[in-house]
Amino acid sequence: MKHDDLTDISLEVAASTFAALGSEQRLSVLRCLVRAGNDGLSIGELGQRTGVTGSTLTHHMKILAQAGLVRQEKQGRSIICAAVAYDAVHQLSHFLLRECCADSSQPDKDHDHG
């Protein structure tokens, strides 16, 4: 999700990003990279931790990278993968929650999403 405005993403961008997360394996890969932090993991370590390896992992990383959720960079002989999803996840949650209870007759005091 490559978009600069945190408060207003389009339906199209949100749908494509949610689609990229629409696989248990991709979601597992992303969660693992989020846990690893900014240093990321080598592709081998990522595969070991998630149980997703080889061409399947390559395929999932390509989809996540196209959605702007992860990055890959070559460091020597290794490929290091890292999550860059923090802003994207914030955008997605804001997209879903910004109009929370807008059509309700009573304000939703239990779900203040600011």
Automatic annotation (TrEMBL):
Keywords, comma-separated and alphabetical: DNA-binding, Transcription, Transcription regulation
Recorded superkingdom: Bacteria
Pfam families: HTH_20
Xref: PROSITE patterns: HTH_ARSR_2
Residue runs in coiled coils: none
Single GO MF descriptor: DNA-binding transcription factor activity
Gene3D superfamilies xref list: Winged helix-like DNA-binding domain superfamily/Winged helix DNA-binding domain (1.10.10.10)
HTH arsR-type domain segment(s): 6-103
Protein name (Swiss-Prot/TrEMBL): Transcriptional regulator, ArsR family
Species per Swiss-Prot/TrEMBL record: Shimia aestuarii
